[in-house]
Structures are given as C-alpha cells and as structure tokens.
Amino acid sequence: MLRCGQMMLAQALICRHLGRDWSWEKQKEQPKEYQRILQCFLDRKDCCYSIHQMAQMGVGEGKSIGEWFGPNTVAQVLKKLALFDEWNSLAVYVSMDNTVVIEDIKKMCRVLPLSADTPGDRPPDSLTASNQSKGTSAYCPAWKPLLLIVPLRLGINQINPVYVDAFKECFKMPQSLGALGGKPNNAYYFIGFLGDELIFLDPHTTQTFVDTEENGTVNDQTFHCLQSPQRMNILNLDPSVALGFFCKEEKDFDNWCSLVQKEILKENLRMFELVQKHPSHWPPFIPPAKPEVTTTGAEFIDSNEQLEELDLEEDFEILSV
Which residues belong to any copy of the Peptidase C54 catalytic domain (predicted)? Predict the structure, then answer.
C-alpha cells in the first residue's frame, strides 16, 4: 500500500510539472522536472516521499513500522509529508466522513501571491479596492495545485454492487488519479476499467535498488511498467478504497465539482457527499501548515556531504508532528 501511495502521488506530480498528456518513452532524454520527480521517491531516508519517510510518518497515524497500511492511512501520510515538500507545493486534502467540503478546499488552495504576503508590501486598501474595480488580478489569490483523496468504505466485507457504476465514473473524470485499494492481503493501484474489470498496477515485484548516478540522473527502467497491467473483476475489490484526483487550477476543481454533482450525486445511495459549506457540527477547518518539528534534518538534506556529517546508525526522519 505504501508503494501504491507513491504511484498515485507520482502521477499527480507528473500532471503538476509535465502535464496529463505526457508519456514516458524508454531510453529517451527526459525533462529535468521528470528526473527531480524520480528523486523524490528514491529509497533513501533523505528523499521526501521515500518508503522510509512514509513508514516513519505512519507511526504518527498509529501504524508501527512493518504494520500494514490501509488506503486512508496512506492518504494521511501523504498529506503530512507534502507539508515538507516546498518544490512541488501541493495542497493535499483528505476528505472526512465521506464528505468533500468545497469551502475548505478553496480556503486551503487559494494563496496570496508572494508580493502580497507581507503587510508592508500590500497597497493601501483604497488602491486595492480601485484595482478590483478595474478588474486587475495583481492581488487575486493564486491556486495551489490540489491533490484530493477521498477514502471510502463501499461495503462491509465486499463492495456493494450499488456503488459500481459511480466508482467507474470516477475513472472517466479528467482529474482522475485512479484509486488505492486491492483485495485481502494485496494492495493495488487501480488506473481504469474495462467493462466490469478494473485495470491495476501490482507493486509486488522485487526490484534492484536504484540511486542517483554521477551525472545526477536516475535509471528509471523499474519506475515504469515492465509487464502489462492486470485486470480483476470489480466485485472482488476490497471495500476499503481511496479515490485520487488532481486539480492543477481552480477551474479544474470547479469542473470536478460539476462532474461529481452530475454523475455521482445522482445516485440514490451516494458513494460520497459534496457540500458547499463546512458542516456546523464539525471542528473548525484550519488549513494544514508545515509544523515545527523535532528533527535531525533528514527532510532538509541536499547532498551526500551533509549525510556524511551525520551518524548513519541513528534514525533521522521526522520524529514528531
């Protein structure tokens, strides 16, 4: 499940930097952004989305090292790790109680431009009002790219057939990143469907360890499908899943909301809810921010020289959040 979470996040980062239409070609020179994405996932303690960081962050979610993760736990781990990832600058929203709140997402993703971050840099209120009346966007909020994860329980011991059509509709959405899930004892990354069969990538293949080469690139052969994707009947799916969506711009999120209202909320037994306002009986929504943590610096290390200064026998991931 940790690897499946990495797959979904990697797909989001590709959409973020390279575009949804980008595709990998073997032995072709790739953009520098692509190489930098790969380095986020290397199996090293100092890489922000490494297996080490994900497992360690899972401790804060009540999962000991080596304990199996579910889709929701992985989603919570990615949400926390993204706070330390300034380059990709993703806003990660994980829905609660099968409910996506539009107001909360827009509050989290709308950020002021850097030039308007400090009070001294802001123009007087009268000027701001004047600019707005003229329709300028100099101080309009920017949109932080959104990774939206919706953990769901679609049945008790097996998926309820009433959710099948809505589940498949999610794969059709242009914002889709697929779904995390599987069947008992096996986690898969689902990327589409054909009829009543789900198409998935299987992470249960041992690969040779890969690290950055002398020229700064990464041998990427094992980061891509070495075998054809597999298929399974949708009714064999474990009912615990997490849907993923990526909205690079606010208009992408608005379009997603329209599609959900049209395709998902039309069902009598809804797979999840989409509401405009934050429910009054919920705790107040506070956009997540990078916390002050006790750390020995793993997430900030940029070079091997810095690593050599540390005692490599010690753990140096994030210790507490």
Answer: 1-258
